[in-house]
């Protein structure tokens, strides 16, 4: 009988990657090319998944605490798709998202005490999370900018390493310094007030890359929307004495504005300089040129958060889990540079 290990050996990937590729709920986390190869090998070997009779789990009542401002959720599909994943996972696991608290309105720690579990979307201060954990130990944080938070379950994407990969790719083609345009991230207190702006993992990676490569910073941190991207690239072009050789942008909504600004200056991304972004949202692929962007496992982040909070509820474990779900570079026209 063919096993997952057999398929992994032939596909030259890990058994976990094979398991994800063959699982309809997690297949999207695997790069399409790898996923197709694994499925073809599985079919050739006549692999038959083992089906277990699943018992319907008891319903769990959870609360969702969101930190992105409402306008960010509307403008940036990243947050919207994570929310979709949370609700999809909840329906699969018999979890009821009984309430949604938006941090800007402020919450009292005791408000989470009567729920089976708590899911936090975005960044709270360490002090805020500790206060919540005092009333409910079953907490999972999605996309927390504070990577040193070691006392609570976290789920995120490998944004730091993906940014370094983007910089490495662009460096091979750049005829000049590499710029970075990113967004500002806030950590919130429970009263709804925001801590000082902190660097996103993509910004941290760029700063670290600068130190290693001895390049001066060509950096703009702005809001996470298209108009902010347009303003940011115009300011960078005005402020930078020498031509920019390449650009990394932290998200597609910003990148759409960046591309617009470049085209207005008669600079074509993918022809005159390479550009790589993040999120791989649908509208970015329909632009001319189409933006080359890292695909992030947005829905999978939400689904995984539900799975982890259910594990906390069921098993009362005393150790924390830090889950990193990989992204991959999609196709587009802004990288690599198209040779005429």
Automatic annotation (TrEMBL):
Listed SUPFAM superfamilies: lambda repressor-like DNA-binding domains (SSF47413), Periplasmic binding protein-like I (SSF53822)
Keywords: DNA-binding, Transcription, Transcription regulation
Domain HTH lacI-type: 2-55
One term of GO molecular function: transcription cis-regulatory region binding
Organism: Secundilactobacillus pentosiphilus
Gene3D superfamilies, per the entry: 3.40.50.2300, lambda repressor-like DNA-binding domains
InterPro entries cross-referenced by the UniProt entry: HTH_LacI, LacI/GalR-like_sensor, Lambda_DNA-bd_dom_sf, Peripla_BP_I
Official protein name in the record: LacI family transcriptional regulator
